[in-house]
């Protein structure tokens, strides 16, 4: 639930619309409302540690939240930076999904995963624009993702893997720590991923 909430808040925040507690309860927390504050607090900690964002309650009567960036940034840098941060957030989530799936994931599984985060391929997104294009073209061109067709599939399916830039700019250890923090578990909980992350690069 914490991971769903973190990703829900990140996506919501891109629209810069305040987030209502009722939305969080309805769309993410559902039957876990007894532990609502625990889930919100843990999501808040994760957002702070991973993305430098603080979850702030701006209306305590109606429980309305916004995310505020705690990162220092140069004047005039704001807008571009926000878009870049958002894309980086999306990329981190995709890279972690690929790694947890054993370093390779089918395109169908990736799209399904993004849909659960309310990011729909094929629909225009306020910040990411054309999500499919961003993932299949921009992230590939920037060498963050490597996407290759799977032989003998009809219609053709694609395989997603980390690109060379992803391996240079982040590490499996960092990505596993990100997943562990979101899930509220120790990295060693995932035995094979942990071994791989701690082993020689």
Automatic annotation (TrEMBL):
<dbReference type="GO" id="GO:0005634">
    <property type="term" value="C:nucleus"/>
</dbReference>
<dbReference type="InterPro" id="IPR041899">
    <property type="entry name" value="MAGE_WH2"/>
</dbReference>
<dbReference type="InterPro" id="IPR002190">
    <property type="entry name" value="MHD_dom"/>
</dbReference>
<dbReference type="Pfam" id="PF01454">
    <property type="entry name" value="MAGE"/>
</dbReference>
<dbReference type="InterPro" id="IPR037445">
    <property type="entry name" value="MAGE"/>
</dbReference>
<protein>
    <submittedName>
        <fullName>NSE3 protein</fullName>
    </submittedName>
</protein>
<dbReference type="InterPro" id="IPR041898">
    <property type="entry name" value="MAGE_WH1"/>
</dbReference>
<feature type="domain" description="MAGE">
    <location>
        <begin position="1"/>
        <end position="197"/>
    </location>
</feature>
């Amino acid at each position: 639930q914490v991971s769903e909430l973190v990703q829900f808040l990140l996506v919501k925040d891109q629209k810069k619309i305040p987030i209502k507690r009722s939305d969080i309860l309805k769309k993410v927390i559902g039957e876990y409302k007894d532990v609502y504050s625990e889930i919100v607090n843990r999501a808040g900690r994760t957002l702070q540690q991973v993305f430098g964002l603080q979850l702030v309650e701006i209306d305590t009567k109606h429980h309305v939240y916004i995310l505020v960036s705690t990162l220092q940034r140069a004047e005039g840098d704001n807008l571009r930076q926000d878009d870049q941060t958002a894309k980086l957030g999306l990329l981190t989530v995709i890279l972690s999904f690929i790694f947890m799936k054993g370093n390779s994931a089918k395109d169908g599984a990736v799209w399904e995963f993004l849909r659960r985060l309310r990011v729909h391929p094929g629909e225009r997104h306020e910040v990411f624009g054309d999500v499919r294009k961003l993932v299949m073209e921009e992230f590939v061109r920037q060498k963050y993702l490597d996407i290759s067709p799977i032989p003998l599939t009809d219609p053709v399916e694609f395989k997603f893997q980390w690109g060379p830039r992803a391996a240079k700019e982040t590490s499996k250890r960092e990505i596993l720590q990100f997943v562990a923090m979101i899930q509220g578990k120790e990295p060693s909980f995932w035995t094979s991923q942990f071994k791989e992350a701690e082993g020689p690069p």
